[in-house]
Amino acid sequence: MNRSTVVLMTAGLAVASLCANAQQTPTPNAPAKTVSSASSTSAQGSLPSEATFNEFLKHMFGWNQDLTWKVVDIKPSEAAGLSEATVIFNTPKGQQATRIYVTGDQKHAFTGELVPFGVDPFAEAREQLKSVNGPSEGPKDAVITIVEFGDLECPACKAAQPNMTKLMQEEPKARLVFENFPLAQIHKWALTGAKYVDCLGRANNAAVWKFIATVYDHQTEVNEQNVDQMLKGYVKDAGGDPDAIAACVARPETAKRVADAQALGEKLGIASTPTFFINGRRIVGFSANIPYDAVKSMVDFEIANTGK
Question: Which domains are delineated in the chain?
Fold first, then answer.
């Protein structure tokens, strides 16, 4: 069996699994965005077209009548010589965003995540994450920082919450920062929830963590129609001022802060929630897909080796 066959079979298996441990970015209604400026294509030739990708996917997966897809973005990869497409696959079991990379000669493709390389592979992400200013817990001079990009309406974020709570209890040398990344196209009240997190976090850092936990506990009870009423109640339960927080939620500067957090997440290549960065190391999901002990070992390793 040649290498190309192995790669494509692996891609098929990855798509078929449709892991439900992280909430994926939704399928836009607009056609796929294709970047094709002279500066972006001169080093690697022209980008594959959306039509080419769809024909490729039809030949690879057309046999599976339960599987549909949408090519949502085609652009030069951050890795020189490769094109990168984001494809949303759908089955009755769920939805998953997958990146497909194509070589410059357009003869080979592979899926997966590009992993940073070098003597300190997570340094660039750590540098970008220095700008985070969401609510935090743990010492400000902590040895390591864990940044969570989350969405209050995301079931996978709720599933990860007990593991993260346990981790912070067992890792007193770690600091956790929560950054908003609402998937507003599929979660109808997530953007409102993000604004409440932003406002309450700035007014009362201790209360916001109680608020987040309470929202997750009652996640299925909140909807687009009752969101303000319910979230104001959870603010009060957490020890905040509901009317003051609601007034803050309505201000344009609050929407801008949430948008800035989303822009940072997009710059870091986030496609699903929850996504965690442990001293710059990216972890997607934190429930059934990744064992608790594995993540704790990563944190212990970073604590032991920071600065070495």
Answer: 3-111 (no CATH), 123-305 (3.40.30.10)
